[in-house]
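Here is one chain, start to finish.
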Amino acid sequence: MEISRPLVSQKAIGCAMTVHRALGPGLLESAYSSCLARQFTLDGVVFDREVSIPVVYRGVPIDCGYRVDFLVEGTLVLELKAVDKLLPVHSAQVATYMRLLPAEYGLLINFNVSVLRHGLKRVLL
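Its structure:
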């Protein structure tokens, strides 16, 4: 059963908040990613992890090794960070991933904050 776009985002944020409450800030991105994948599974959220992003240049696929952290419900690009501060380049990264996949919308989550809502950024094209 496909869920609506706002609900996909809400479910992803809810799962991220659960992980953040359990772990807090200060860990590596890989720890948050593994725990978030587990929480998605527990909550029945459909996702793909480490999704390869195709880059096509002048009609030729180029293997550049780009991967999005999560593609949730086939529509939400979810990129995780564990950094001191989100920078404009992080939003640009998500927007580029959205164009290349293509995906309808994106969410950037920085787990290295004391309150997770301060680390959330929606990305629109």
